[in-house]
Amino acid sequence: MAFIEVKDVFKEYAQDAVIKTEALKEINLTVAKKDFICIAGPSGSGKTTLLQLVGALDKPTSGKIFYGGEDITVLSSGRLADFRLRKIGFVFQAYNLINTLTALENTEYVMLLQGVNNKERREKAEGILKKVGLGDFLHRRVNRLSGGQQQRVAVCRAIAAEAEVILADEPTANLDSQTAAGLIELMRQLNQEKGTTFIFSTHDKLVMDKADKVFQLKDGRIV
Amino acid sequence: MRGDTLQGKYTMQVITPGWQRTLELDVWSEGRDKTFIRILSPAKEAGVGTLRIKENMWNYLPKVERTIKIPPSMMLQAWMGSDFCNDDLVKESSLVNDYTHNILGEEETNLGAAYKIELIPKPQAAVTWGKLIFLVRKDGFIPLREEYYNEHGKLIKILEYSQIKQVSDRVIPTLWKMISLTKEGHQTVIEVKEVEYNLPIDGDIFTLANLKRIE
Amino acid sequence: MRTFLKIAWRNIIRSKWRSLITIAAIAFGLAALIFIRAFVEGADRTMIENYTDLIPGHLQIHKIGFHKKMGLERSILAPEKLIEVIKAEPEVVNVTRRIKDYCLVSSSEHSSGVLLMGIDPSTEPQVSYLHKRIRHGEYLSKDKDDQIILGKVLAEILNVELGDKVVIMGQAADGSLASGAYRLCGILDTGAEEIDKTVALITLKAAQQLLVMEGKISELTLRIESVYNAADVSQKLKAKIDTKEFEVLTWKEISPLTAQWLEFDRAFINYILFIVLLVVASGIFNTLLMSVLERIREFGIMLALGTKRIQIVLMVALESLILGVIGSALGVTIGVAVSLYFGSRGVNLGKFASALENYYTGSIIYPRLYLDYVVGFSLIVLITSVLVSFYPAWRAANLKPVEAIKHF
Asked: Which of C302, C319, C405 minimizes the C-alpha distance to A98?
C-alpha cells in the first residue's frame, strides 16, 4: 500500500457562477514513505494547489486522497485540522513563523498544540535547533533571524512535532543559492535520519536535481 | 331677599361628625357691597366681627385685639367652620352678572310649583362652580333649593330653603340648610330669627372702626 | 495557555501606541464613571440628610389618612403608648411630638396662610435640626408659650421684626374660632423657600391650647441612626403598631418629589454608564479588529498548523482581556484617587448655588465612594472589553487557512 495516494483528483476554483478556474486536472500519483520528491513546474501550474490538497489544507473538487489507506477527503474540517496537527509539517515560502515568538517557542508551537508536556517539548526543540546549527539563536525573536534561519526553524518545528510528511512550498525561493543549497541539504539529512517524507514544490533546477523523483506539472496536469 | 338694607339676628348651627356649634349673629348689610356680622355667642367667639366691603374682608378678634384682613386666597374657605364660604355670604351680585340663566322647566314641590333654572358661569366670570341649579317658587320667586356643581359636573353642596314666612316687608324662607356632599356628615343650618329690610342704617357701621368696637 | 498569553501580550507590546491609546480610553472612561457616580452619590446624600434634618425627619407617624388630608380631626389621642413602642426600637435615636395645621398669620400690615407647627422644645432638637437654622433671635423654649418663630420670607411678607406681635387665626378642633397672639422670638433661614415662606413654629403646649387639642397631637416624628434604614425601621414599627389606625411613613413617602429626584439621579448615572461603555467598547473593538486584520496570514499559518478555532478565539480574547485589565486597573486608581481627593475637599459649585439651595444640596458637594459601585463598574467595563473582542476573534478563527496564507 502506498503511503500517500492521489487518485483522479480535480480542483476547480469558482470565483463566481460564471468564471471557473481549473487548477488541477486528473492528478494521479503515489508517494512512498521516506520519499524525497519534488513537484516542479512554472508559476500557475498548480503546484501550490496540489501541495495544499496533499497537505489536507483544502479538499479536491473530485477525486480522492488516501493516507495509509484512509480517505482524507471525507474528513470534516475539524478532523482535518487534527490530521494536519499530528501528521503534517509545513514549510512555506516565507512568513512561516509567529513573529512575536522566539525560535525556541516557534519550534515548540506544534508540540504545544499536540499536548506534549513542557519538559519533553523543551528538550526536543532545543535538540533539533542545536542540531541544525541554531543553538545560539534559541531565544532570538524570529523576526530578527535571516531568511535562511527562519526556514530552518520551520523545518525544526515540523521535525520536533514528529510530522510524517513535510510539505515545503518553494522553500528556497527567497534565499540565495548558498543558503538554499544548505536548506535542501538539511532536509535531505533529516529525511535520511528520521525517515520523514519530504514533498516540495519548486521551479529551481538546483532543488530538482536533489530530489529522488520529480513530477512535472503543466497547466494542472502531470506530464 | 336682600333688598337695599338689611338688619337682623340669625343663628347658625354647624354640624360635623366631630362636633356641633351654634353661633348667634347680628347681621347688617347694605346693598350688595357691604356686610357686617357680629358674633354674639358662644362666649369664646363673642365680640368677633366680620366686615366685608366689596371684595375686601376683615375679621376682628377681640381676644387678641387685632383686625385681620383676609387674603383673597382664603375667601373660598369656610366662614367660621360652616359650609358657607366667605364668598357665599358676600357674592350675591355675581348671580346676575356672572351667570347665564336658562329655565329648564317646572317642578312640583311641597312648597308649591317651582321653576327649575340652570345657571352657567360666563367664560370670564371669577367663579369656581361648573353650574348651579336653582328651584325657585313661581309664587313670589322665592328660592327653594340651590344645587352647586363643580366643573366636572359633581354635586358639591345643596342649599335647602324652608319655613317661608312673611318677615318685615316681604316673604322669605327663614331656615337655610346647607348640606355638604363632599364632607360627610357636614351641614350648616342658618335660621333667620328677626330681620328688618330697608331701614336706614348708619354708614358708620361698615367701617373698620366699628369692627373694633365692642358693646 | 502560557504560550497563548505570551502571544497575546507580545502582540500588545508590538503596537505600543495603539495599545496605550486603547488603555487610556478604558482608564479614562472608567475613572470618569467612578467620579461622576461618587459626585452624584455625594450630592444625593447631602440632599437627603439636609432635607430630612429640617422638617420631615426620618419617619413620621400619624392617624391614618393624615398625610393625604391634614386636619385636626385626624389626630393621635394618647401618644404615650405609641412613644413607648417607638422608643423600644433600638435604631430610634429620638421621637418628638408635633401639632400641624393650616392657619392664618397676620401682622398689623399683612396676612398670610401658614403651616403652623407646635413643637416640643425639649425633644425637637434631637430629631430635627431646625434650631440650627435660626438666623436671628433664638429658638423656642419650654414655658415660653407666647413666642413664635417665622420663616425669613414670611417675616418679610408680614414686615415684622423680632419682638413684634403677630396673630394666628384658625379653626380649633372643636370647630370654634382659634385665635392667639405671639411675639416673634426667632427667624428661620433654611434656604429652602417652601419652609421659609410657609412655616410658623410655636410650642406644643401653645398649639394645644390654641387649637383645643389638649392631650392630642398631629404627628410623631422620628430620628433613627441611619436615614438610609428608614424602610427597615418602618417595617419593624408597622409590625408593632395598629396600622389600621395609624400610618407610618418614611421620608421618601413623605416627599415623593425627593424620592423622584433620587431616581432621576440614578437614571442619569445609567445613561452616563451606557455612553462610557459605548466609547470603551468601540475603542477596543477598533483596536482588536485592526490587530486581527493585520495578522491574517499569521492566523492562517496557525490554523494550517492545526490550531483549533477556539484557541484562536482565546488568543484574541486574551489580548482584549489584558488591555481591559490594565485599563480598568488604571481607571479605578485614577477614579478612586480623584474621588477621594474631592471627597475631602469638596467640589464648589458656587455659580449654581442659588439653584441648588432650593433642592437642599447646598453649593459644596462631597463625592462619596462606595465599594459596591467601584467594583461593579470595573467589572462591567472589563466584561465589555472582553465581549467586544468576540467578533474580531470569531473572524480570525473562521479564516480559511488556504486563503489566509495567500494574504499579502
From this structure: C302
